[in-house]
Structures
1.
Amino acid sequence: MGKNVITYTKLINLNQLLIISNFLFQRRILSMPRVARNQTETSFFHNMTQGINKEYIFEEKRYKKKYMELLQKEANEFNITLIAFTIMDNHAHILLYTENINNMSLFMKRINEKFAMYYNYINERVGIVFRNRYKSQPILSEKQLLNCIRYIFYNPVRAKMVLSPEEYIYSNFQDFKKKDETKNILDEIYKKISHSIEFPKTSNEKLTLKSDFLDISEDKEIFIKEFIKNYEKEHNLTICRNKKDMENMVKHIKKEVNVSNILLAKILQLSKSTIVNYLKS
C-alpha cells in the first residue's frame, strides 16, 4: 500500500502492532493543525483529515463506522461538540465547537491514533495511516458557519454517492436535524441563527467547487476523484476505458462540476488538448 508500508505476518500480535504504531505516530506531529496563531479567535473549526498518499482508508463500511464511533466517544472526553461531520472514502470533514484549541488538537490526535492502530491491526501492517497533519480552518462568521454545515453534509451528494444527505449514513446529518444540543450552541454564539438550517430541495444544480471550503487544489482533487470513482461504479466502467467512455465521462464531469480543464486533465492523466477535443466532439 505504498513505500511507507511494511507488511508483517500473522505472527505479529495486537500488542506489538499497537506499540509500533504508537511510536511511529509520536514521531509524526499529528497533533499540530495548520492554523495560524492569529486566526484562532473563534470556537468553531472545520477540520479535514486524509489518508496517507490519498489512500482510501475509509472505503470499507467497518472503517467508516469505527471512525464515527471514535469521533463520538472522544468528543465527550475532550469536551468537544460535534456540529457536523461526514466520513468519505479517503477523507473526513469535521465541524466542531470547542472553547480550548489545545483540546481540539488532542482530540484529533487521539481519534487518528486509535483509528490507525485499528486499521493497521485489521490489515496486518504498520506505518502511517493519515497524512502528517490534519487541516484546520477557523470559522469566523455566521455565514461561513452555515455554509460549512451545508458543505459537509452535501459532500457525498456532490460525489454522486447519494441523492440527498439523509441517505448517507456515515455522517451525523440525522442527529443534527433531531438534536437540540448543537442548535442551542449555535444560538448562543450566533443569536440570529434559526433552529432550522435550510438545505437545497434538489441536487439538480451544477455542483460548484467555488467554495470557502475547497480553496486548496489538492482538496479539489480529492473531490473530483471521488466523483469519478462513483461515476465509474454507476456506469460499470473498468480500468481499460475506451475513448467513447472517456469522452462521455469528461462531458458529464464538466456538466455537473465546476472544474478547470487543467485540473481534470491532471486527474485523468490526459493532455489538456484531449480534454478540449472531447468537449468539442
Note: The longest helix spans residues 101-122.
2.
Amino acid sequence: MRTRLLLIALAAVTLWTLIGSSKANTVEAQVRVTDSVVVDRTQSYQSPWKKIDERAKLENPADGNSVRALVDEIFKYPHSLGEIPPVMDSIVKERLTQAEMNYKLGRGPGVEVNGIVRLVNKLAERFQLADSARTTAHQAEVLRFGLEMATPTFMALPSTSQVGKPVPTDSSVMSPVQATFLLLTLIDAKLLSPDYQLPPDEWEKTKYVPMMENLTKLKELKDSGRQSKPETKGVLISLSSQSEEIRTAVSHAISQMSLTDGLDLVDQAFAAVGIGK
C-alpha cells in the first residue's frame, strides 16, 4: 500500500508535464531489442535501454549514489511526458531512491503489477477519460515482457535481502524503480500508440495473443543464438485524434489545479509512504 501511494505521487508528477509537452507532428518510434544503433554511419550510439541496463549492473542497494544514478537514468529515457518540472525533480528522485534502497535491503515493500494497472485505471476514471485509456494486467504483461528483453539486467526478477541473505520474490512483484519505469512506459503507450488505444475488451480479443506470440518468438530466437543480427520491432506511434483527446482531457483536469495543489498532493502521498522530506 505504501509503495503504491508512492506510484500515485509519481504519476501525478509526470501528468503535470502534459500541458507543456504536446508535440504537433507524427513520430515513428522503434522499440529496439538491441545493444546499440549506428548514427551517421561513423558513430556508435548507445540506446536508452542499454544505458539503463548498464547502470543497473552498477547498482548497489547499500550505496545511495548508485541507486540515485539508476533513478536518474530511467527519467532520462525519452518518455512522451517530457522531464519532471524542476521544482519537483529532486523531491521525486530522492524519495524514489530511498524507496528502492528500502525494498532491495528488505526494509520496504515491492510493487504488485496489478497495483500499476489499478493506478492507471484510477487516473483514467479521475480525469474522465475514454474507455480506451483504461488498461489491463495483460497490457502491463506485454510491455513488461518487452522491457525484460530490452533491459534484461534492470528488469530481472528482483530480490530483497533479510539479514544479509537474498530472498527471491515472486514474478508479480517489482522494485519501486522497475514499477515506475513500467508505469511511465504504459502511460507512453496510452498517449501515443494506436495499438494500446483500444477499449480493454477489444484489446484483449485482438491484440494480446498476437503480441505475446511475437515477443515469445523473438525471445526464443535471441536465447538460441539463431538471431544473426539484432532485430528491430517497431510500431507507428502517432498523435492521433484519440491521443489528442486524452491529452486535452488530462490537461483540462490538471489546469484546474494550482502548482501548490500539485505539490501538496505529492507531499501528502510521500508522507503516506513514510518517506520524509
Note: The radius of gyration is 19 Å.
3.
Amino acid sequence: MILDSFAGMNSKIFRWMIVILALLVAAASLGGLLINDMYAAESGDWLAQCLAQDLFDLCIAVPALLLSLLLYEKGSRIAFFLLTGLLVFLIYTFIIYTLSVHFNSFFLVYCFALALSSYSLIVLLYGVGSGTVKGWFGIRQSETVSITYLLFFAALFYLLWLADIIPSIASGKVPAILEQTGLLTNPVHVVDLSFLLPGFVVTAMLLKKRHSLGYVFAPTIMAFSIVMTLSIATIVFYEYAKGFVPQYSVGIAMIVSSILSLLVLLHFTRGLKHG
C-alpha cells in the first residue's frame, strides 16, 4: 500500500489531521451559512461570494477530501494527487478567509484550517517523496500535452489579471471589482500572481526536464484546477441567482475548464502503475 511509503511516520496521525481538517472546514462553512451576522461587515457582492464558497466547501470539498483519504489509504495512487490538489485548494481558500474576510467569531477556525491544510500537505509530500512518485509512472514518451496545458492557463490568467490591474494603475483608479466587494486589494490577484501562476510555469519547466518534482506538482495542479474552477462556477451561479452578475457565461466557462483539467489529469496519469 502507498501508506507504507511513509518512512518513520505514523499514518494514523496523518489520517486524523485530514479528519480534523474536514471538521474545521465543515464548521467554518456551517457557521457562515447558518449564523446570520457571521458576514455582517461584508458588502453584498463579497457576502454572496463568501456564502457560495461556504456552500461549495461543505457540499463538495469536505466529502471529496474524506473520500480521497479513504481511497488513498486503500492504495489508490491517483487519490494521492486528489488529496494534494484538495489541500492546495484549501490553503488557497483559507488564505482568503483569514486575510480578506472581516474579523468574526470563526477567525481562529480559519487560522487552524489554514495551518492544518498547509502542514497536511507538507506531511504528505515529505512522507512519500518526489522520487517515489515519479517511480509510479511508466515509461513516458512525451509531456507535451501537460506542459501546454500548464503554460496556456498560466498565460491566460496572467493576461486576465494584468488587463484588470495595469489600466487601473495607469489611471490611478482602483479596479472595479474592489469597488463592488469593498476590499482593499483582490486576494485572488495576490495569490495567483505571487504563488499559483508562477507555480504553473515552474512546473512546466520541471516536466520538460523530467524532474521528479514535476511529476508531483503537475497532477496536483490539475486536481487543484478541477476543484477551483468548480468552486468559481458555484460562486458565479450563486451571484447570478442573487442578481449580482447579469449572466452566468463565466460559470459555464469554468465548468468547461474543469472538464478540460480532468481530461488532462486522466491523460497524465494514464501510465500510473497500480500500488
Note: The mean pLDDT is 92.
